[in-house]
Amino acid sequence: MYRVLHRALCTAAEPATVSIKSISEDLYKEVKLKTLVEKFKKASDIDRFRKKTGIYEDTVRRLAGAKRFRWVRDILEHQKQYSDISNEGFSARLISLYGKSGMAKHARTVFDEMPQRKCDRTVLSLNALLAAYLRSRKYDVVEELFRTLPTQLSIEPDLVTYNTLIKAFCEKGSFDSALSVLKEMEEKGVNPDSITFNTLLDGLYSKGCFEDGEKVWVQMGAKNVAPDVRSYCSKLVGLAGEKKAGEAVELFREMEKVGLKPDLFCINAVIKGFVNEGNLDEAKKWFGEIANSDFDPHKSTYSTLVPFLCEKGDLKTAIEMCKEIFNNRCRVDASLLQLVVDKLVSEGMISEAKEIVEIGKTNRYCRYRLNLPAEE
């Protein structure tokens, strides 16, 4: 009883001088996770703090990233004592946070407990629950809940609900089922948006279902949904997989003509297309495109090009890229650098191999333990 009264008095008498910003900054800076949990729970007594979704997201992300799931549960269960829990938006946030931590069963518990807290369950909380199971990779459960809960609770699925189901099918690799949802949406009078189409395009093109991807691309135009950068990137990936690098270049230029700025992933897709075709000169040329952009090469860029350079015997460029990796502080897998070292040794370029091993061992941002193979 004392604790309840104390909390009520503290909340009612929140001093105007309490700075939520300073509390949030203190939590961001806290390195001891156990202390973070204690401070977070104490701060939760402040009504204004509980409205700050960003600090909730960040704290749960840090705890889940450190695999401290017991502490995730500790701070989220702690929230149930506040009157906010009767607000659907607040409950949906807890469901979402559990989902982002891969704790779908706890998300379901929050959802199931909502009626006893006199909290309405609408499509908002339904979508949060489906997303929780999606993030936990429980794709079959997403479909099961989609087919049962709306009828049981008299909830009408909306665009977000359908998009979540499509995403689950695509992640599962059930593309026929994903495409059937598109038809179901049409029957229900729910218009697909760019998220709907991009989810399908990404899944189909990336998994080699190029023809089906092309059909969805046409449907996208028929629905007057304009392709965005993500749409084009998915198609570029599809063209690369089909070894149609020339068409990928044409599509890349088309993006620029319609006023869309290609991102690094678009450039990487074109590079991948030329690598798949075995065209070293064009792959290197398009790597040069990155220098003309606002981007730095990504781990995936090097992972595509460096093995190809070794395969083609262009060890000079491979060495340059290794040094670039170190200079740009790009974290790549050690196996990528080891591949170059092994190739250099096999070609008798021992001093060059030793140089890469030494830089890997002494650079400050990420130490790589590379081995210098014995000369054959």
Q: Key features?
A:
376 residues; mainly alpha; 4 domains; 21 helices; globular; disordered N terminus
Short note summarizing the structure:
The protein is an all-alpha fold. The protein has helices spanning 2-12, 20-29, 33-43, 53-65, 69-78, 88-100, 104-113, 123-135, 139-153, 159-172, 175-188, 194-206, 210-222, 229-241, 245-257, 264-276, 280-291, 299-312, 315-327, 334-346, 350-362. Helix 4 (53-65) runs parallel beside helix 6, helix 9 packs antiparallel against helix 10 and helix 19 packs parallel to helix 21 (350-362).
Major sheet: size, sense and barrel closure?
none
Q: How would you spell out the order of helices and strands?
A: HHHHHHHHHHHHHHHHHHHHH
What percentage of residues falls in helices of 4 or more residues?
over 70%
Low-confidence stretches: 1-16
Strand content: under 5%
Number of helices: 21
How would you explain this protein's 3D organization?
- It is built from 21 helices and no strands.
- With 376 residues, the chain is mainly α.
- The chain folds into 4 domains: 27-151; 157-219, no CATH class; 227-290, no CATH class; 296-375, no CATH class.
- It is globular.
- The termini are far apart.
- One of its GO terms (cellular component) is chloroplast.
- PPR repeats lie at residues 158-192, 193-227, 228-262, 263-297.
- InterPro entries: PPR_rpt, TPR-like_helical_dom_sf.
SSE order and pairing:
Elements: H1 2-12, H2 20-29, H3 33-43, H4 53-65, H5 69-78, H6 88-100, H7 104-113, H8 123-135, H9 139-153, H10 159-172, H11 175-188, H12 194-206, H13 210-222, H14 229-241, H15 245-257, H16 264-276, H17 280-291, H18 299-312, H19 315-327, H20 334-346, H21 350-362
